[in-house]
């Protein structure tokens, strides 16, 4: 049996954390939560998740700063990190990818797209390379 993949959700919005946990646990993943970027970096170092969803706008430490910290640490630099963003302007996707995120998911989160995105990032490298 395949080991359960661990997903860390870093998000200050509680409703969104609850929604993501619900969908991801239903998909068979182990879900960890953090409420801001600093907590998220600590949790990533401690738990070594397979994938991280990182809100961009958060108190204490924003998602872009937290991502930079993860990328600068050899222990966490290879973890896939997906930005959670409500940005909808043209060019936002490019900016998010330029910051070093592997992909992004717009809010409000599309609960049908979420499992698909997770599968692609965790299990299908070629498909990911094509769209990132
Ligand atoms: Mn936020």
Number of strand segments: 5
Helix content: 40-55%
Mean pLDDT over the full residue set: 91
- Helical element count? 6
The coarse overall form would be: globular
Radius of gyration: 13 Å
Distance between the termini: 30 Å
| SS-derived structural category | alpha/beta
Question: What would your notes on this structure say?
Answer:
With 132 residues, the chain is α/β, with parallel strands linked by helices. Helix content is 44%, strand content 19%. The protein has 6 helices and 5 strands, in the order βαβαβαβαβαα. Strands 2-1-3-4-5 form a 5-stranded parallel β-sheet, with helices on both faces. α2 (37-47) runs parallel beside α3. The protein binds manganese (II) ion. Manganese (II) ion binds at residues 12-13, 55, 57-58.
């Amino acid at each position: 049996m395949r080991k359960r993949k661990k997903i860390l959700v870093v998000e200050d919005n509680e409703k969104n954390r609850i929604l993501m946990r619900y969908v991801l646990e239903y998909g068979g993943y182990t879900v960890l939560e953090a409420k801001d970027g600093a907590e998220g970096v600590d949790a990533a170092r401690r738990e070594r998740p397979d994938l991280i969803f990182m809100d961009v706008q958060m108190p204490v430490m924003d998602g872009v700063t937290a991502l930079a910290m993860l990328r600068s640490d050899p222990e966490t630099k290879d973890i896939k990190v997906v930005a959670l963003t409500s940005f909808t302007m043209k060019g936002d996707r490019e900016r998010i990818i330029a910051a070093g995120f592997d992909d992004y998911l717009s809010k409000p989160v599309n609960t049908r797209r979420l499992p698909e995105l997770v599968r692609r990032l965790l299990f299908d490298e070629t498909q990911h390379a094509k769209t990132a």
